[in-house]
Specification:
The chain has 106 residues and is mainly beta. Helices cover 0% and strands 59% of the residues.
């Protein structure tokens, strides 16, 4: 696939809601077509970042530094993302206080 898509990522989970530190530091790994494309380390509560990425198949994994494990409820994909997409990915708690990634088209 040719072209790029835009993503804005927001860490919206106050770890105190889960009995952890307020900052709730996580490491994010972004895979494109099965290969690690990017690592975002020490991503904390209220942080944001934006990027333009090449179109393709993506998987996102979130590793909790405090729990020492990948959080399965926060794994996205694999999913094909087409050129021209403009997405917001927000880490938040579900109604049952499960940490999740919510994806919205902008």
């Amino acid at each position: 696939m040719d072209g790029t898509w835009d993503v804005n990522v927001v860490h919206g989970i106050n770890g105190k809601s889960l009995g952890l530190s307020k900052d709730l530091p996580v490491n994010i790994t972004v895979y494109k077509d099965g290969v690690a494309l990017a690592h975002i380390n020490n991503f904390t509560f209220k942080e944001r970042f934006a990027a333009a990425l090449p179109a393709g198949e993506y998987k996102i994994e979130v590793f909790s530094q405090e729990l020492g494990t990948i959080v399965p409820s926060m794994t996205l994909g694999p999913v094909m993302i087409s050129a021209g997409a403009d997405l917001l990915i927000r880490a938040q708690l579900s109604a049952g206080k499960t940490p999740v990634l919510v994806v919205k088209s902008k």
